[in-house]
């Protein structure tokens, strides 16, 4: 039986390195988490939330799924948002997509991908909503533009959730941001999709 021993070895080395730098690190973290940020991103292994923004454990509450989608019937995502907003009281929610997203690419294809096509239909919807604009792009540029448009759409979906609308109505002050990550150079770009409570007219 393979027990993935190498991963346990890496874990011990990682924990040791943290403890050497800061002996109280884990005991302090075990008391509570108080992250200021909720990150909603893609499951892609090249887009790890904490590493990209260079923050240690305890600083970011994270939800990831294929193509960073906020679906109105996805109890997993909606529960994460509710907990982050109502209990953790995060100050910022970041919806982060990435260029070259495999989920977005697959949604643009006509072929059958099996079960995942149900999920990708949400991206197909974004494509249809923006058909005219996307007609001006070809190949990878088209994929990348849809990656950006998908972030904007998911920011709007998030702002329309019961949790976010109610929280803002009741005076919560968190903002929602739309970002995109470039897997070719490791750089984040703000898509200027910022939504703050007073300007939210969704
Ligand atoms: Co992706």
Tell me the distance between the termini: 54 Å
CATH class of the largest domain: Alpha Beta
What is the alpha-carbon Rg in Å?
19 Å
Strand order in the largest sheet: 2-1-3-4-5
| Oligomer description | single chain
Beta-strand content: 15-25%
Helicity range:
40-55%
Let me know the average pLDDT: 95
CATH architecture of the largest domain: 3-Layer(aba) Sandwich
Ligands, ions, cofactors: cobalt (II) ion
The ordered string of helix (H) and strand (E) elements is HHEHEHEHHHHHEE
CATH fold name of the largest domain, please? Beta-carbonic Anhydrase, Chain A
Q: Which structural category do the helix and sheet elements fall into?
A: alpha/beta
Poorly predicted parts: none
Count of separate structural domains: 2
Brief digest:
The chain is α/β, with parallel strands linked by helices and 202 residues long. It is built from 9 helices and 5 strands; from the N terminus they run ααβαβαβαααααββ.
Structure notes:
- By secondary structure, the chain is of the alpha/beta class.
- The protein has 2 domains: 31 residues, no CATH class; 158 residues, Carbonic anhydrase (Beta-carbonic Anhydrase, Chain A, 3-Layer(aba) Sandwich), CATH 3.40.1050.10.
- Helix content is 47%, strand content 15%.
- Strands 2-1-3-4-5 form a 5-stranded mixed sheet.
- β4 and β5 form a beta hairpin.
- It starts with a helix and ends in a 12-residue tail after the last strand.
- The model has no long low-confidence stretch (mean pLDDT 95).
- The structure holds cobalt (II) ion (CO).
- Cobalt (II) ion binds next to α5.
């Amino acid at each position: 039986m393979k027990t993935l021993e190498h991963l346990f070895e890496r874990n011990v080395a990682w924990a040791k390195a943290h403890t050497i730098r800061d002996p109280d690190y884990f005991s302090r973290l075990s008391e509570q988490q108080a992250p200021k940020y909720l990150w909603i991103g893609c499951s892609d292994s090249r887009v790890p939330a904490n590493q990209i923004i260079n923050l240690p454990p305890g600083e970011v509450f994270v939800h990831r799924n294929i193509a960073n989608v906020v679906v109105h019937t996805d109890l997993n995502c909606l529960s994460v948002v509710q907990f982050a907003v109502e209990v953790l009281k995060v100050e910022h929610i970041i919806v982060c997509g990435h260029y070259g997203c495999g989920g977005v690419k697959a949604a643009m294809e006509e072929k059958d991908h099996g079960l995942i096509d149900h999920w990708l239909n949400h991206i197909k919807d974004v494509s249809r909503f923006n058909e005219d604009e996307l007609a001006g792009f070809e190949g990878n540029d088209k994929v990348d533009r849809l990656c950006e448009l998908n972030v904007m759409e998911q920011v709007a979906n998030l702002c329309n959730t019961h949790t976010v609308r109610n929280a803002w109505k009741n005076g919560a002050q968190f903002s929602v941001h739309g970002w995109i990550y470039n897997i070719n150079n490791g750089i984040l770009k703000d898509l200027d999709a910022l939504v703050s409570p007073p300007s939210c007219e969704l």
